[in-house]
Design brief:
Layout (H helix, E strand, L loop, with lengths): L11 H11 L4 H17 L10 H13 L5 H17 L2
């Protein structure tokens, strides 16, 4: 239970953006990572990443490769975004 004087925890994408900015990534990288995270969450019916895990990441990567015909280098970009997402949601 939160005390009324405490600020609410930032939303997931805001947490991810903060981590990206701490790492001094470019704004384009930030935008790409946030877009990947949104696509991942939408793919699983808007479930929060804390409720998802490695199996879902693998399933999404397979979906991208088979149905989205996404290049391996793009899949690596999603993998990095997923890493930041799961690091933020813990």
């Amino acid at each position: 239970m939160q005390d009324s004087t405490q600020k609410p925890e930032p939303k997931l994408l805001d947490q991810v953006r903060g981590k990206i900015r701490l790492k001094h990534y470019s704004i384009r990288t930030e935008q790409a990572y946030v877009d990947w995270i949104k696509r991942f969450v939408l793919h699983f019916g808007k479930r929060h990443p804390r409720d998802l895990g490695a199996a879902e990441v693998e399933q999404f990567l397979t979906h991208l490769a088979v149905h989205g015909k996404v290049a391996a280098s793009t899949q690596i970009g999603f993998g990095r975004a997923a890493h930041l997402t799961f690091a933020s949601s813990c």
